[in-house]
Amino acid sequence: MARRSAPDVNAGSMADIAFLLLIFFLVTTTIDTDRGISRKLPPPLDETVEPPIIKQKNVFVVEVNKNNDLLVEEVPMELKDLRAAAIEFLDNGGGVGSEACDFCQGAKDPSSSDNPVKAVISLRNNRETSYSTYIAVQNELVAAYNELRNRESQRLYGKSFIQMEEELKDVLYSGSKDRLKEQIKNIQMMFPEKLSEAEPKK
């Protein structure tokens, strides 16, 4: 009996199919990108303008050492307590006269910050501090500002600050965007995010 010859496979279109699959996967695949921390850089140094004098009581020093231990005002603290400590400092309202804060709900301790506009949080870290600890500390400090902004936004406008920011980005928002921008700016002026980062220690 004669042997049959195997039919040839037409491979002429294989390259086209592979190319189409490659394009499909390139178009549909999402690539993870690292997100940075939103920070506003200081303006260029102007030699003619003298830097403002900051009272020591208006500076809240947060330090992270090479062992990832947290020191707040030179006192050891757990990360879970940092947000509450920052809120207590920012919302103290210990100022009198022109430096008084009429919306602050803190202890009004004269040895702590005068008002949120004057208050500065100074973050110092070591070069050997882990990145995850650094980001966790940043998150807690930013969360302290957001919590206070949410409180005042609820009191003044009946909705949270985060909700207002989301509405501003929403293209389907039906209200006045100019009014919304003004309200957001007003809350930001009440609790300006003054987060100073010192150069890491070696």
UniProtKB/TrEMBL annotation:
Name this protein carries in UniProt: Biopolymer transporter ExbD
Membership in a protein family: Belongs to the ExbD/TolR family.
A Pfam family it matches: ExbD
Residue spans crossing the bilayer: none
Position of the signal peptide: none
Keyword Transport: yes
Taxonomic source organism: Aquimarina addita
Membrane topology reported for the UniProt record: Single-pass membrane protein; Single-pass type II membrane protein
Subcellular location field: Cell membrane
